[in-house]
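Recall that a protein's primary structure is simply its ordered list of amino acids. Everything else, from secondary elements to tertiary packing, is in principle encoded there. The following example makes that idea concrete.
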Amino acid sequence: QVHLVESGGGSVQAGGSLSVSCAASGSIFSINVMGWYRQVPGKQRDVVAAITSGGRTNYADSVKGRFTVSRDNVKNTVDLQMSSLKPEDTAVYYCYALIARTYDSIPDDYWGQGTQVTVSS
């Protein structure tokens, strides 16, 4: 049993900043990757940012230079700091984790429930 619990989100004006956080709990041996996806109605869920256990990061081109993803490998948390927000960033943001529950198991995908981020112009 693994749970990803998100916090943060909300509404902000264009150009403002916002952050979202996620904590993984349950039976966890290791978390290979943590990150964030986002989705708007009628569109697919797309990756926003991801970070490996070693701290290597990847970002969607649309958020590079504006968003920063970080993680705490002891607390099993991941944060997404968003700045210079645009109306196009409005979406439901989902926490993601690739988790191995035991030392010899194949990692599985886990998702949070999603949190709304709304950017107004």
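DSSP finds no helices and eleven strands in the chain. The CA atoms of residues 40 and 91 lie 5 Å apart.
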